[in-house]
Amino acid sequence: MRIHLVYEKQKTEIDFAIWIPEERGFNINGEPRLIIGEAKSFGEDIIKGNDLDKLKKTASVIPDSVIVISVLKDSFSKEEKQRLIEFVSWAREPVNYRPRHWVILLTGTELFNDSLERTWQNLGEPYSTHANTHSTHYLEPISDATQSIYLGLDYYYTWLDNKPRKIN
Fold first, then answer.
1. By the 8 A CB rule, do 59 and 68 touch?
2. Where are the alpha helices (DSSP H) in the chain?
3. Average pLDDT value for residue range 110-136
4. 0.85 exceeded by the pTM?
């Protein structure tokens, strides 16, 4: 299902949106979080710049939304990874020491399993490094883990601490 959006006379679309409660730990839920996303199938090079531009446009008017990019295949192509790195770099720009948007990358590996923690453990590196309850049950750590696994990126706060500072 595609969701068509119009904002200030500009049209865009996303493939899905869902509200979920923010996790606070110990089964305590906080404020709702909006997840928006792009869903693709098994094609070779299917995450295109146009798809990411639409997501960026939509996310720009929905502050603090979590972005999910999902494919049914088991990995991203070299070209997709390059586009995703550029997109994640945009989403990681800090707003009050948090990323503009957390981005979660899902493949068939994450979508077709009964236990993400066990699946990642069984796959070995680089998955097994992230095969723990914290990294597989909460949005922000899943974002960090999937960006590390599929794009080779540092966790957000490590990246932010190592990012060159602008001198005023």
1. no
2. 49-60, 78-91, 108-111, 116-123, 133-137, 139-151, 156-162
3. 89
4. yes
